[in-house]
Amino acid sequence: MAWREQVPSDAKITFDKLIDRKKKWDTCKSRAAACALLCLFCFLMFAVVYYKNIASLNGSYISFFEGIMNNSFLIFLIAVFIVSFVYLYVLAKEIDKAKKKYETLRNETIDKFDTTWLKSINFDTRNEISLEMNTYDINIDYKG
What's the pLDDT at 117? Predict the structure, then answer.
């Protein structure tokens, strides 16, 4: 943390915003993964319950829908699946938005890092900043 005394205040604020945006992006990705697992779990539970209890009935569509409507657990699984699938769609949009904001700020930070902020600062300080950002899985050395 000694590097924080050696960089301008706008650099500190930018690095803190970069860390916050990375955390938000990671949070959105983990929520999406959990939501996808919930969708998969509901689908598998629906298949298991349906085939154990209802599939042995007549194979027509009417018996399919009657079997589902008579079983409240299957209706619950369908409702949870639909809600989690819609939430997954919303999270996908949030992930794209958070990634775009993060990447834009990261590229701006790299540009400022290379040009204006560190002209008077030695290589050790630059290395220290890079190592700290790497603990948050933020690469400020390469734009690609």
Answer: 64
The alpha carbon of 21 is separated from its chain's Cα centroid by a whole number of angstroms, namely: 11
pTM score of the predicted model = 0.84
* H/E stretch holding 98: helix 72-114
d(CA 83, CA 81): 6
User: Residue 40 is inside which H or E element, if any?
Assistant: helix 9-53
What average pLDDT values come out for the chain (144 residues) when binned by 10 residues? 78 92 97 97 92 70 80 93 97 97 93 71 80 90 78
Among 78, 73, 87, residue whose Cα is nearest residue 34: 87
